[in-house]
Write a structure and sequence with these properties.
- The protein is mainly beta.
- About 5% of the residues lie in helices and about 40% in strands.
- The protein is built from two helices and 25 strands.
- Strands 1-22-21-20-19 form a five-stranded mixed β-sheet, with no helix packed on it. It has a four-stranded antiparallel β-sheet with strand order 2-25-24-23, with no helix packed on it.
- The radius of gyration is 20 Å and the shape is globular.
């Protein structure tokens, strides 16, 4: 009887946690011959503003399929994985015409992830202002992060990678390896978790991260989600909570690049959070949204992320307790490194790729 019960439990677990392909969507190519399209944000129902890692900023008209590039773009540190990263319009965009950017700024011949804002007026960026030049400098040219999201209480969150320097993940005196929370004007919220800690930076909201390239605040469930790169295996989806330590590099499900050895001390340690899902092998995730269901009802509430290494759209189903249920992988045969996924005002889903293409999801 016990053996039958164990077999039933195993089969049920295999069903719930298996990769499936139950969706039948297509992609329509709506732009091409661009640089590496890193970030996108809908300005309105017809226009998407996008960033290229090389520093270019363009506006794509979805009806005309034409693109206008802005001329007065910022100077960026475009080396290795550095450059112009994410862009998101302000929650009050109709009134303030403000855009938020993360980009890599050169500071003393080193690159640092920087949060900035500017106003878009007459297809020009005006009043550019750096809100936070992070303390994250290193001699490396990798692991800058970075994505932006907003909650409903006037806070902005953005991620900074560990810069390829592993100890940064557990060092609260650097912004590297953290998620940062600020007010929309760049000031520090009084209730940030480390404002009373003289050995920590006040901007830090969570730490112990390797390289988060997807972050999304779901206003419906009031959950902050993040997806980050592991080493060789060990990409993670995490439910982010204030002041928590997510373990890197002390715990990880990944292996060393130079040998099949575990990273750090293992996969668990007291005081360090467990991921809601991890990937072995790595998919190399970039971007993250929780889809509203406005247009594609069967995707409602699911987490959507791009995959760089394994070239697909990653779809994750979580239950009401934020526990992993099912995974789907779409468009693997297109061999596109999907860099960004965004949702439009009417539920449109737009994807960008490292090959300079932008796609529209079609049923």
């Amino acid at each position: 009887m016990m053996r039958k019960l164990l077999l039933l439990t195993f089969l049920l677990s295999s069903f719930l946690f298996s990769k499936t392909n139950t969706f039948n969507y297509k992609l329509e190519e709506i732009a091409s011959n661009l640089g590496k399209v890193w970030g996108m944000t809908f300005l309105n129902e017809k226009e998407i503003l996008f960033t290229e890692l090389n520093g270019k900023i363009g506006i794509l008209n979805l009806e005309k399929k034409d693109i206008k590039f802005l001329l007065n773009t910022p100077s960026v540190y475009h080396r290795g994985q550095g450059g112009l990263l994410d862009v998101k319009k302000s929650p009050n965009y109709k009134k303030d015409k403000t855009l938020y950017f993360t980009y890599v700024k050169e500071v003393k011949n080193k690159g640092v992830t920087t949060l900035a804002k500017a106003k878009l007026m007459n297809n020009k960026l005006q009043e550019w202002k750096d809100l936070l030049i992070t303390k994250s400098a290193s001699d490396t040219s990798r692991h800058f992060g970075s994505r932006i999201t907003f909650d409903e209480e006037g806070h902005l969150y953005f991620s900074v990678g560990d810069r390829g320097v592993r100890p940064n993940g557990q060092d609260l005196t650097t912004h590297a390896g953290t998620i940062i929370r600020l007010n929309l004007d760049g000031t520090i919220p009084k209730d940030n978790p480390f404002t009373e800690n003289s050995n920590a930076l006040d901007e830090i909201y969570s730490y112990g991260h390797r390289n988060i390239q997807g972050i999304f605040y779901d206003k419906k469930t009031k959950r902050l989600w993040a997806i980050e790169h592991g080493p060789r295996g060990g990409d993670e989806i995490n439910l982010i909570e204030k002041g928590k330590n997510y373990g890197w590099p002390v715990i990880s499900y990944g292996k060393e690049y130079w040998a099949p050895l575990s990273v750090g001390e293992g996969t668990h340690k007291a005081g360090m959070e467990q991921p809601r899902k991890y990937y072995i092998p790595s998919i190399a995730p970039s971007s993250l949204i929780v889809y509203s269901g406005k247009k594609f009802k069967d995707l409602e509430g699911k987490l959507l992320s791009g995959a760089l290494k394994l070239t697909h759209l990653n779809i994750i189903t979580m239950n009401e307790n934020a526990e992993f249920v099912e995974e789907n992988r779409l468009f693997e045969d297109l061999h596109q490194r999907i860099r960004d996924v965004v949702e439009g005002p009417n539920g449109e889903i737009i994807l960008s790729s490292d090959s300079g293409k932008i796609f529209l999801l079609k049923d």
